Automatic annotation (TrEMBL):
CDD domains: Ribosomal_L10. Pfam families: Ribosomal_L10. It comes from the Bacteria. Forms part of the ribosomal stalk, playing a central role in the interaction of the ribosome with GTP-bound translation factors. This is Large ribosomal subunit protein uL10. It comes from Bartonella bacilliformis Ver097. GO terms for cellular component: large ribosomal subunit. The keyword Methyltransferase does not apply. InterPro entries: Ribosomal_uL10 (IPR001790), Ribosomal_uL10-like_sf (IPR043141), Ribosomal_uL10_bac (IPR022973), Ribosomal_uL10_bac_type (IPR047865), Ribosomal_uL10_CS_bac (IPR002363). The gene is rplJ.
Length: 208
C-alpha cells in the first residue's frame, strides 16, 4: 500500500480516500474488495482440493494439534521425499471439496485441527503418516480413504505395513536382474566352461 496525493494504491487497485465521510467510503470499498478476493481464493482452493480427493491413490486425515511448526515441516519434507504431500485445510472447505467424490464418506473426519496426507501411490501417505506418528504422538491419525474405500485407523496402519510401489518395483527388478546376471556371466565365461555347462544340461536331458 502506498499513498499518491489524495489516492491510495492497494495491489494496483485505486481506491480514493480523502477525509471524513469519504474515509468511510474507502474502508467500505476495501472490505468489499477483500471479501471478493477471499471468495475467489476459496473457490479456487476448493476446486484444487476436490481434484486431490479424486486423483490421489490414498488420503489420510489426522489431527495435528500440538505439533510445532518445525515438526509439521519435518512431516512435509518426509512425505515430499516419498512422493506425496501434506496440506492443512479448513474443515468447511474440505467438506465442500469432498462433495461428489468417491471419498465423500470421510467427511465426518474433518473436525478439530486436521491435515491431510495424500499420494498417488496408495501406500506412501499411510506409511509416512504412521511412521511419523510413532515418534510424534501429537499427530493422531483419524482414518482416510483409498478411492471409494473408506479407511479406518487400523486400515491405514495395515496399508502402512505394505511395501510401496517403488519398493515393489525394486524387488521385481532384483528378481529379474539376478537370472540375467547369471546369463551374462555364462556368456562371458571361457569357451571350455560354457561347453561344460551345455554338456551338463545335455546329460540331464538324456537321463530324463
Amino acid at each position: 500500500m502506498r499513498e499518491e496525493g489524495d489516492r491510495i494504491l492497494i495491489d494496483g487497485i485505486k481506491l480514493y480516500a480523502v477525509k471524513g465521510n469519504e474515509q468511510v467510503c474507502f474502508l467500505s470499498k476495501l472490505v468489499k474488495w477483500r471479501k471478493t478476493v477471499n471468495r475467489a481464493e476459496k473457490r479456487e482452493f476448493v476446486t484444487w482440493l476436490n481434484g486431490i480427493f479424486q486423483e490421489s491413490g490414498s488420503v489420510v486425515v489426522a489431527h495435528y494439534s500440538g505439533l510445532t511448526v518445525a515438526q509439521i515441516s519435518d512431516l512435509r519434507s518426509k512425505i515430499d521425499e516419498a512422493g506425496g504431500a501434506v496440506k492443512i485445510a479448513k474443515n468447511t472447505l474440505a467438506k465442500i471439496a469432498l462433495q461428489g467424490t468417491q471419498s465423500e464418506s470421510m467427511v465426518d473426519l474433518f473436525t478439530g485441527q486436521t491435515l491431510i496426507a495424500y499420494s498417488k501411490d496408495p501406500i506412501v501417505a499411510p506409511k509416512v503418516a504412521v511412521d511419523f506418528a510413532k515418534t510424534n504422538d501429537k499427530l493422531v491419525i483419524l482414518g482416510g480413504s483409498m478411492g471409494a474405500v473408506s479407511l479406518s485407523v487400523d486400515a491405514v496402519k495395515s496399508l502402512a505395513s505394505l511395501p510401496s510401489l517403488n519398493e515393489l518395483r525394486a524387488k521385481l527388478v532384483g528378481m529379474i536382474s539376478t537370472p540375467a546376471t547369471r546369463v551374462v556371466q555364462v556368456i562371458k565365461a571361457p569357451a571350455g566352461q560354457v561347453a561344460r555347462v551345455i554338456g551338463a544340461y545335455a546329460q540331464k536331458g538324456e537321463a530324463a
